[in-house]
Amino acid sequence: MMRRRLRALLLICLALAASTAWTQTRIYGPGSNPRELTSIAWNTALSIFEGWNGSSWQALVSSPVTHAATYTVDGVLTAETGQLRWYPPAACTLVSVFAAVGTAPTGSSIQVDVNKTGVSVLASPLSIAAGANTSSVTTPTTTAMATTDYLTVDVDSIGSTEPGRDLTVRIIYTIP
Question: Tens of pLDDT along 85-103?
Fold first, then answer.
């Protein structure tokens, strides 16, 4: 499926690069009754290319589309319960979660949890070991999210000597 999407996008890019003007390139939209597209635009909300067929915009890549939500804490870490909420732009499926710090903790590990509407989506919190900068990539145990659900990130514990600095938590998700 992913290869088909990449191949379709590559063909569009090659067709556009090979033409001397937009009007010389004919691109047809998806579906059982495709129509010639008159415009192509980047949809920033969904992070996909869309084509205008004269009556509606159509996605030029098939689903699911992979996205990343990134949570960052600049500077010295402190243990805290998630203060910020992230709401998905559409119903989505959580794929993986990963954490990293710019300065490694010392004395003890950093423990980070990701919660969906107040309940952890992980079997156990992400752990960045003392002296390390990254956690392992973890697959959430709860994956389905509606637009009314939200995620928060908790920093459950920090290094005892050096707490760690500049945390980034990346949550990968797909929109069907």
Answer: 999 988 999 999 999 999 9
